[in-house]
Amino acid sequence: MRILFLLLVLLNAAFFAWYSRDRDGPSEPHAGPAVAADKRLVLLSERPLSGEPPGGAAPRPRQQEPPEQRARQQARPDGERAASSGTSQHCYEAGPFASEAEAQRFLRARILGGRAEPAAHEVVARDSRERAGLWVRWPGALPLAEARRLYRELRAKGVEDIAITPTGEGDYYISLGVFRREDTLLQRRERLAALGYETEVVERNRTVPRYWVVTKFNAPFNAPFNAPVEAPPDAPAWQAVACP
User: Fold this and answer.
1) What pLDDT was estimated at residue 55?
2) What are the distances in angstroms from CA 127 to CA 105, 198, 207, 213?
3) Are residues 187 and 214 in the same domain?
4) CA distance 200 to 68
């Protein structure tokens, strides 16, 4: 038992001597990646962002158009620039027509019945101010009592087609007829003048719906002006208009 104990003590002393010599001896440093003498270390925060030139070089300037070419581009009209980009549209219209059915017949004959293929087409209604005729009346407005007296006087002398018309402001007109033809208007005035009455003529207007055919093409198109169907002499002509 004593021999075993002494053997263990000797082994521990030998291990301690060997371990102490290995720690105290010189050790070589671990070789890392070599860095060239003319290079400097760059921190992560100093690295350029994506898309920037490395090494802090100045960004490459964007190539600019020559001044002559830039001036020509700016001088081109908006319509020409739109056409060059492929987004240009060309619109045409014809009218007015007295009814929607008449406009639809014109559209079928002049566009849809031929070789034309518009990108869009429609018949639109617009209010139109037109002359309704020439109004013959007593000069100036009268109070209601005076208008009634004059009305009875004219009827007693054989004048027909008379009416008392309110002005909207409390007075009244003596209406002596509305005429479309100037010859019948002159006959009316001459007869009243022969009876000793002076009259005045006022143009009457009214608002009526009129219809237009509107087409839109993606490129300049001359076919609408060369109709495949012979149009009447008084048919409306096509006109180029600005697209909405």
Assistant:
1) 53
2) 20, 36, 6, 14
3) no
4) 68
